[in-house]
Amino acid sequence: MGTTRMVIWTDAAPERARRWWTVKPAVRDLSLSLAIAGATGVSGGAAHLIPALLLPEAIAGSTLTVARDPKLAGEETLDGVSCLKVEFRGIGERDSSAWLEKDTLLLRRLVEETTVQGSRVTTTTNYVPSLNPDLQASDFDFTPPSANDEP
Fold it and tell me: Which of 78, 88, 104, 127 is 20 to 30 A (C-alpha) from 27?
């Protein structure tokens, strides 16, 4: 199977959003919360984290806002950026670590460790954040590819 992609877009959040997925290539109209929920499991939770931080009134339960027992675990450099490493207990008793840009506190990396059926599973999500990028309305246009196009 090739690359799998899911796109969620809206101009009426949180009431209405659209979702398109290469696995079931059709546009579905859903609430933003349901669209994000559908992407959360298949993305290992990555699809949920940033939207929940940006729209907490519409999408509940961010890993970072419910962190328990946080502690500063030092400083590290990721991709040339000085970061603070914070360790904490996350959702579902996951041992978690977040790397935050030292100057902006933007999230650069999240590592979550949990036990699934007796095996230790580590999920790492890397982010490349940008403050105040130059965006145009057309940057948010999405036209799903036709069935003959490559995703």
Answer: 127
